[in-house]
Design goal:
Number of domains: 2
Largest sheet: 6 strands, parallel
Strand order of the largest sheet: 1-5-4-3-9-21
Helix content: 25-40%
Strand content: 15-25%
CATH class of the largest domain: Alpha Beta
Number of helices: 16
Number of strands: 23
CATH superfamily of the largest domain: FAD/NAD(P)-binding domain
Length: 545
């Protein structure tokens, strides 16, 4: 079992001296611990605020929570033995199975002995003279190490909106990213769900099946592709195991870390009949491969319109009430310019007698009352409110760690106008601090496990090279950082992604957050090549000493 922090820990004890401190015990933290401890022989520890491992999947236990990459590649690729032993049960596994998988990996690699659970970080401070990071926990313990690696995930800071009257609500309310471990009983309850992003799209069908009544409060209508989820067959398992190397070669060579290729033909280069046939086939297969139907869906507005119109027509086919179908049809952004959800019966949910859709652009929410939600038009009586309002993505989990770097520079202040990173790996004024899948890297535009592995491998080799060459300190150069930020913007502007003004890729779901496109849209393979070149050139763009 992982070590659990005792409340009786000596608050005033000297810091525990380590070679590396890792914050977070999800996909990132587990692999980083394995690489530093077992490959480099470092004395490393993982600090995790939860009482179990799993990271994002520890907290996201809401109804219908599943990954949106297929299970045969939503996993680690670094250990063939693990892959040969583990079998997924579904094409898109639910959260309990993902946690089970991560525990299987942790046990297989004997990682838990170096994971401190129930250990929430309250601050991290860098000592310029000693080149040491000191991390303090909320219980008062301290840990010190030359290297600090944040493995806190991109989607781990729940965005609970400030709503007038919430404290007066007499029922229960929950955020999907902070779901109770023992679940929520919706039987006989009137439920209000606020939010229709990828989380809300997963949750609504399950809640509707269980609740007496569900009212969905929608700000922005969304596209969604059917997941076509189902069991993994013995033949599927055999195929994956036999083609292990080729699957991961394809994933690493791709734009988004998925082991399938994007079509090389333009959506505008074929006849309408042929185009509709291709889209129809992709719709029937389901999942994220729909985006790969044509080469220019995210580069050309006219090409994107063909995909958007196809999906709009599908909403109108599925939803029986034309007025509801129209409310559910997105017009303010093109397909996949925001995160493209996949679903299991989302649009069909609005054909149920116990489901009501409320457009909060047409009738904004005024306040939460003791008995429910009041809009500008009426009062909705509720027993439970579910906030499917997403996360303070990419930057929130890092800023909330209260990190202070060289000369007391605070990450919160340095990023006040938006994140400034070099390769998404480091920021100036924060030596020896590495961020796994940080802003400025492909991160959320990718299949996350493979993006994580690429970052962890790069960080590990960087630390190996530093130790071999007698370097004690590495810091991103300010000029290289500004050039990288400019390149991240250029890569985004070469696509249609920045056009979705309400996207959390831009931080638009968090009031007051700077509107900056945060992930790297230049493609996973291209990004990996850039990182490899930087390393092979002696870590160009970093100051080593």
């Amino acid at each position: 079992m992982a070590i659990k922090e005792s409340a009786a820990s000596a608050v005033n004890a000297a810091p525990r001296q380590l070679d590396a401190i890792i914050i977070g015990a999800g996909f990132s933290g587990l692999y980083q611990l394995h690489k530093l401890r077992d490959d480099l022989g470092l004395n490393a520890v993982v600090l995790e605020k939860a009482d179990g491992i799993g990271g994002t999947w520890y907290w996201n236990r809401y109804p219908g929570a599943r990954c949106d990459s297929e299970s045969y590649y939503y996993c680690y690729s670094f250990n063939k033995e693990i892959e040969q032993e583990w079998s997924w049960s579904e094409r898109y596994p639910e959260h309990p199975e993902i946690r089970k998988y991560l525990n299987f990996v942790a046990d297989k690699l004997d990682l838990k002995r170096d994971i401190r659970l129930n250990t929430e970080v309250s601050s991290a401070v860098f000592d310029d003279t000693a080149n040491i990071w000191t991390v303090r926990t909320k219980s008062g313990e301290t840990f010190s190490a030359p290297f600090l690696i944040t493995a806190v995930g991109c989607l781990s800071t729940a965005n609970v909106p400030e709503m007038k009257g919430l404290e007066t609500f007499e029922g229960q309310w929950y955020h999907t990213g902070l779901w109770p471990q023992d679940g929520v009983n919706f039987a006989g309850k009137r439920v209000g769900q606020i939010g229709t992003g990828s989380t809300g799209i997963q949750a609504a069908p399950v809640i509707a099946e269980q609740a007496r009544h569900l009212t969905v409060f929608q700000r922005t209508a969304n596209y969604s592709i059917p997941a076509r989820n189902g069991p993994v067959t013995a033949e599927d398992v055999r195929h994956t195991r036999e083609n292990y190397d080729e699957i991961w070669r394809l994933a690493r060579a791709g734009t988004n870390g998925h082991p399938f290729t994007i079509s090389t033909q333009s959506a505008l280069s074929v006849s309408e009949a042929e185009r509709q046939g291709i889209y129809e086939k992709a719709w029937e297969r389901g999942g994220l491969r729909f985006r790969a139907s044509f080469s220019d869906v995210l580069q050309n507005a006219d090409a994107n319109l063909t995909a958007s119109d196809f999906l709009r027509s599908k909403i109108k086919e599925v939803v029986k009430d034309p007025a509801i179908a129209e409310m559910l049809t997105p017009y303010d952004h093109g397909f996949a310019t925001k995160r493209p959800p996949i679903d299991s019966g989302y649009f069909e949910t609005f054909n149920r007698d116990n489901v009501l859709l409320v457009d909060i652009k047409a009738e904004p929410i005024v306040e939460i009352t003791p008995r429910g939600i009041r809009t500008t038009k009426q009062q909705y009586e509720l027993d439970i409110i579910v906030f499917a309002t997403g996360f303070d993505a990419l930057t929130g989990p890092l800023v909330n760690l209260n990190i202070s770097g060289s000369d007391g520079a605070r990450l919160k202040d340095e990023w006040s106008a938006g994140p400034r990173t070099y390769l998404g790996l480091q920021s100036p004024k924060f030596p020896n601090l590495f961020t796994i899948t940080g802003p400025g890297s492909p991160s959320v535009l990718c299949n996350m496990p493979i993006a994580i592995e690429q970052h962890v491998d790069w960080i590990t080799e960087c630390i190996r090279a530093m130790r071999a060459n007698g370097h004690m300190r590495i810091e991103a150069d300010a000029d290289s950082t500004e050039k990288w930020v400019a390149h991240v913007n250029e890569a985004a502007d070469a696509t249609l992604l920045p056009m979705a003004s309400s996207s959390w890729y831009l931080g638009a779901n968090v009031p007051g957050k700077p509107r900056v496109f945060m992930p790297y849209a230049g493609g996973f393979a291209r990004y990996t090549a850039i990182c490899d070149d930087v390393a092979q050139s002696g870590y160009r763009g970093f100051a080593l000493s």
